[in-house]
Automatic annotation (TrEMBL):
Gene encoding the protein: ntan1
Stored InterPro entries: NTAN1
GO terms (BP aspect): ubiquitin-dependent protein catabolic process
Organism from which the protein derives: Betta splendens
GO cellular component, one term: nucleus
Protein name (record): Protein N-terminal asparagine amidohydrolase
């Protein structure tokens, strides 16, 4: 089992509670991490990662200084970094295919690192809370188990997950940290919030809503955000959600209805409206090619294809 804490192999554990009881250092570092106020990240240096997406780059990147993601309730945000090359990857995992997703992260960091380069792999896990269905707890264990099974040694640096990311507000459990950023140059991971979640925010949300799998959204060699191509079947039945009240949408379209940010319902409605406006994705991806975006001199993402 290649997961290490403070250079010691992690012993077997059956729950996140047992993990934190065995390794008090993890508990203390989680408390320190969650106590930091979320930083407001400047959109002009940001690469935003949505649910079921990941992005990887290196300190040599001229276009991106911070990779970030938020709106994680039961979802987990995973940062994997090689300390030698500085190659870093951030993923927003929702439990759809955890084992294969961890492999994608490992391969993405390896592809940006020299196999003979000194350094080690470090992982930072943030997300989840004490939700009633134990969805967070299951995902925490699955992610940890997936990293355990890798051939390479991996050092667990931050583990602010499930019960260590939980707070009770007015009798309701909620996450403390909903979003994180990672400084591409330094490798620092920090709580964060984001005013901008593009480019192509609605298209990317629609891809996930209609069952898209974990997608790599960034070509660091050229500084391109690449979306798709993806397909979904015309399904006019989803229009019924637009006539439902907020409580119904929360109940059926969220894994954690009481813990969602206040804009969740509007986000769901705009995503559904986008799908209804584009029953076929052919017009979104001419000739079956992805949408490509590049950062302008003003720091904005601009579509180039």
């Amino acid at each position: 089992m290649p997961l290490f804490i403070q250079n010691r192999r992690i012993d077997q554990f059956n729950s996140t509670g047992e993990l934190f009881d065995k390794y008090h250092h993890l508990k203390e570092s989680a408390r320190t991490f969650r106590s930091k106020p979320p930083a407001n990240v400047d959109p002009k240096c940001l690469l935003y990662v949505q649910q079921r997406e990941f992005a990887a780059t290196t300190p040599a990147d001229k276009w991106v200084s911070v990779i970030g993601s938020d709106d994680a309730t039961t979802c987990h945000l995973v940062v994997l970094r090689h300390t030698g090359s500085g190659a870093v990857c951030l993923a927003h995992c929702d439990g759809s295919s955890t084992w294969s997703e961890v492999l994608l992260l490992m391969k993405s960091v390896a592809s940006l690192s020299n196999a003979n380069e000194e350094g080690r792999l470090e992982v930072h896990l943030v997300g989840g809370f004490n939700d009633e269905s134990k969805t967070s707890h299951k995902l925490s264990l699955n992610i940890l188990a997936a990293f355990h099974k890798q051939k390479e040694d991996i050092h667990l640096e931050t583990c602010c997950i499930t019960e260590m990311n939980d707070v009770v507000v007015d009798g309701t459990h909620r996450p403390i940290v909903y979003g994180i950023g990672v400084d591409v140059k330094k490798g620092d991971v920090f709580p964060a919030s984001f005013s901008y979640k593009g480019p192509a925010e609605e298209l990317r949300s629609a891809r996930t809503f209609t069952g898209g799998q974990m997608a790599d959204i960034y070509d660091s060699s050229q500084g391109y955000v690449k979306i798709g191509p993806c397909k979904w079947s015309p399904n006019l039945d989803i229009a019924i959600w637009l006539s439902q009240d907020d409580d119904t949408i929360l109940k059926y379209l969220s894994t954690s209805p009481m813990a969602e940010p206040p804009y969740f319902v509007q986000h769901m409605k705009s995503t559904i409206q986008f799908i209804l406006q584009h029953p076929s994705t052919d017009s979104l991806f001419p000739a079956g090619q992805p949408q490509l975006y590049h950062r302008t001199e003003r720091g904005e993402w601009e579509r180039v294809v």
